[in-house]
Amino acid sequence: MQGPAVHGESVFSPVMLIGQAPGAREISERRPFCWTAGKTLFKWFAPLGLDERAFRARVLMSAVCRCFPGKNPRGGDRLPDDEEVAHCQRWWLSELELLRPRLILPVGRLAIAQLLPAARLSERIGRQWVYRAPQGWNADVIPLPHPSGASTWFKMEPGQTLLQQALALIAAHPAWQALVAEAAQDAQGDLAQPHAAASARISN
């Protein structure tokens, strides 16, 4: 695995996203989902009320592994092996326990497999599940496919339809709706500030 480790903003949020592992570009930029896969991911979320900026500011972005696993000789990034996954597990599990989110969004097969029994994507995507933590608390889980440019799963059926079903579930979830409302309120405040400043200048 190649460092440095990459992680999102440390935000206290009711929603937690768990990715697979950073790519080479994420390592150089020091932030998750900052290249091709990220562009696709944030295109999924923007119509649901959170653009990239709002999402990064309000959702804890974690990962199964924090360092770049290197390239696969056959092309693309190498999938972290079981030992690497086990070695990094304490980081995202600690975040999960500290945050105790109401909604978890695992992205890709590797992340989904950490929370739910192994199954085909078609049996996981498009439905809402429950994660039962050993400490006694629960969270809803809405899995998503990995938005990698090398993946065709979400571009073909049944992936297209199942992805839209998953996004609809996210949009309807109370934890997500709370973040959307918060972002909208902040946006209104930002719009009001220039008007307030202009009014102050006129009155002076």
Automatic annotation (TrEMBL):
Q: Give the UniProt keywords, A-Z.
A: 4Fe-4S, DNA damage, DNA repair, Hydrolase, Iron, Iron-sulfur, Metal-binding
Pfam families (alphabetical): UDG
Which GO terms fall under molecular function for this chain's record? 4 iron, 4 sulfur cluster binding; deaminated base DNA N-glycosylase activity; metal ion binding
Q: What SUPFAM superfamilies does the record point to?
A: Uracil-DNA glycosylase-like
For this entry, the protein name equals: Uracil-DNA glycosylase
> InterPro entries, per this entry?
UDG_Type-4/5, Uracil-DNA_glycosylase-like, Uracil-DNA_glycosylase-like_sf
Give GO terms for biological process: DNA repair
Annotated PANTHER family = TYPE-4 URACIL-DNA GLYCOSYLASE, TYPE-5 URACIL-DNA GLYCOSYLASE
Uracil-DNA glycosylase-like domain: from which residue to which, for each copy?
A: 6-167
Instruction: Specify the taxonomic lineage.
Output: Bacteria, Pseudomonadati, Pseudomonadota, Gammaproteobacteria, Chromatiales
